[in-house]
């Protein structure tokens, strides 16, 4: 249980320490909820590579017109989807379902051209509140 407290503090800490400049409004949700992480580029993306990462970990990869799950981090397996019919109009948003506290972090959405060169990126911060966990931890802390 002490471990839970420590990891919670750590999360709060890293959340503040990462001083990157998100160009989107941060999103906060509760554990187990679904969330759409918005990403939009003013170009058609069907022939591009779309690469979503969270603090360097692979979240979602779209290339050659389809989703490529081969390098996806285990943490996100089966929980991330995109909007296939929106890619043409530049919408690279993804949905994460059954969000976990460990999904919290800084997400980047990048699109790369045919040569694999990065063209543009967007960044968004997600915070997943472990509501139950917090309540229980404080009970323990002040018992
Ligand atoms: C992108 O698609 C999602 C899902 O349909 C939608 O919620 C969002 O508003 C779209 N974004 C833009 C900029 O069109
Ligand atoms: C928190 O405590 C409640 C009861 O007080 C319990 O039902 C729940 O499962 C606990 N949640 C966690 C994550 O330990």
UniProtKB/TrEMBL annotation:
It is found in: Membrane. This is Ig-like domain-containing protein. Keywords: Immunoglobulin domain, Membrane, Signal. SUPFAM superfamilies: Immunoglobulin (SSF48726). Residues 22-127 form the Ig-like domain. Residues 1-19 form the signal peptide. The keyword Membrane applies.
